[in-house]
Amino acid sequence: MKILARAMSLALCGSAIAVVEMPAAFAQVSQAQTTETITVVGSRRANASATDTPVPVDVIPMSKVAEQGGTFDLAQTLQYISPSFNSTRQTGADNADLIDSAALRGLGSDQTLVLVNGKRRHTTALVNLFGARNRGNTGTDLNAIPMLAIDTVQVLRDGAAAQYGSDAIAGVIDIVLKKRPGCEAVAGYGQYSAGDGKNYLASAYCGLQVGEKGVIAVTAEFLDRGRSNRAEADNPRIIGDTKVRNETLYVNGDLPTSDTAAVYFTLGGQKRDASSAAFARGGIGSDDIPSRNAAAMYPDGFVPFINGDIDASNYVLGKSPGYALLQATVRGTVKLRFMAGLACYVADAVGRSTAPHVQAQLGDLIAQVEVANGLLHAAARDVVINRREGGSLRALAAALWVFIPQTQKQAVEVIRQVGGSGLIMTPTAQDFHNPEIAPYLEKYLQGKNLQAQARVQLFKLAWDMLGEQFGSRQLQYEWFYAGDPLFTRSRFYRSPAVAHYKAMVDCALGNTDSAKRDKS
Prior knowledge:
Elements: H1 2-12, E1 48-50, E2 57-61, H2 63-68, H3 74-79, E3 85-86, E4 103-104, E5 112-116, E6 119-120, E7 150-156, H4 161-164, E8 171-177, E9 182-190, E10 199-210, E11 214-225, E12 243-256, E13 262-277, E14 305-320, H5 323-349, H6 356-389, H7 394-419, H8 429-432, H9 438-444, H10 452-466, H11 469-479, H12 485-493, H13 497-509, H14 513-519
Parallel strand pairs: 5-8
Antiparallel strand pairs: 1-2, 2-7, 3-4, 5-6, 7-8, 9-10, 10-11, 11-12, 12-13, 13-14
Helix pairs in contact: 1-5, 5-6, 5-7, 5-10, 6-7, 7-10, 10-11
């Protein structure tokens, strides 16, 4: 099939598409369900951290934070919730005062990848200079997104360059916007105890249902943050918060175009009027006259202000389903074939491929890979039919979201059990050139019908796929490719196929509509 050959070529060439497109058959809108609540007395943290995953992930629901939190912007809110998040309001740093850049783990702000609904968020056009924090960096302005528009914020508190690239060295922040029917509004006021820095907030969200499954969500926000000053009385400088006035509008949603396809979009815009106090210029008797001040104009000195009119806008428009899901399924299937071959070679090297229980493990893994091959061909057929006349993409979604991640975990476990401690007892190439220990390595590290250097090379490859950073991140990437694995699997329970399967049981039990009418 041409489409399968094209997708196979993309996978073998190393192409990786990290965009998850969800077929409309499984993209039904649903309310988040809370299965468990854990309250820690005396803790200020309001989020739940998944610490049992290979890397720590914070999943922060924003509904209560947006309605009851003491801060009005996203950057400062995350500052008090996520332990590795940093966003410091600057003063006296020129244009850097106008934008609060986000950063993780104390690294530069351009080393933190920010996603909105899984898509990369653009960075600002400002390069931090002079005495600014993040000097030489360009960051992402989180305060351009209204808090009431956000459903959850997911923070990956570890480097993720293997999956996303060098801009994710510090970590990843994924901002998931609301897409549910209903309206809500928030109004707020606050100030510092000194009486300055007055904040006014007015924000409203409204989600409109379009048809049976479509949703258009609109969020509007007005934020007015007053200037504050913590300089000493005899200091002409102004040290404190920048004066900011934000007017923000966000629109996002999903609109089904057929039973199996939908258009998704995110549109956002903000107009920001900000004023930042620069370094003060001294008056008569200071070194600033005549270089930076004129005695006739400002004999007592003055404070210059940097006024910025910032217009920010972004949009994302896409259609699902497409070929990205099929390409990702091809990539995952090819990787499973490689892992199965690696497991068989490791078993041969240690002389355990003749053991019945090892053969059973390897045979089960190979059977799972063959099932993945069948799902891949069925998925390619589904895509062809869908593009021509519409139809279901169940085989494609089941393979990519459930079967491939589970089978890859199985392959990793089989290689670990068969390889044992030999996976980590691997000398370097220099050790084989050491005349003192090379004879012992050749004698004790040889495999069955395999020389020592060839065996070490094989086991190093296996360790790269299992234990090293590359392998562990690849496993994490596949397992969370479509988001939370439990939530992803729950979509199948809500799919139309369930009604069809139940109907078969009803038919066997005589619970059909005709049978009910006969009984009545």
